[in-house]
Amino acid sequence: MDKKTYYQTRNKIFNVIWISIIPPRGYNRRKKIVILPSELHKFVFCPKQFLFDKKLKRKPPLKRRILILIGKIKHYLYIKRGYKKEHLLEAEIPWLNAVLIGKPDAFKVKDNVIILEELKNRNGPLNGAWDSDVIQALAYAYLLKENYGKNVKITIIYKNRKVEVPYNEALLKLCLADYVAVAIGASVPIAKKSGKCRWCQYQAECK
Ligand code: SF4
User: Fold this and answer.
1) Is-contact 181 15, C-beta < 8 A?
2) By alpha-carbon position, which residue is closest to atom 4 of ligand 1?
3) Which of 21, 37, 163, 178 is the most exposed place for a label (fewest CB within 10 A)?
4) Domains in the chain and their CATH numbers?
5) CB of 115 closer than 6 A to ligand 1?
């Protein structure tokens, strides 16, 4: 593990402990936080953009909106025998007093396993899958696991290839705690500029 990953992991573990044991001011334990896998995806893609979206609610550039629309149409047209599509699921996240709600793209129950397919309207990276896609798929897998009580086999389907992702609840927990810490204002992310900023609608405000 390199130094950067070590510090990132350490901060995430700190967030889990902090929120679970000593909730920060303004965090109402009686009011459950609703988390959507699509928001988690946005958060992992860029936590700063996720925050800007909450405050400024600015639409993405037209090109990006067109791609989102094409993605939605592709999802709609994706039909596979035996698979359930866009089935609304809900599961508690007790250690964070939160509830996860979402609709996996497509899944089927086969014997003791659930096969989950997550569709993406873009190419995958050279190796593995994009972090934001992995976390979103893990969130859907968590929903399925909690609702059906079975193991989940995850496949992310990119335009150029398919990637199998192992179920990793520990990683999802770290990310959920990080997400909640930012969502309730207990932690403020710093901007990490990269190629992803090219299509960002908050470039002027992002420092
Ligand atoms: S400019 Fe880049 S770092 Fe800043 S919010 Fe947009 S994507 Fe994130």
Assistant:
1) yes
2) 206
3) 21
4) 3-188 (3.90.320.10)
5) no
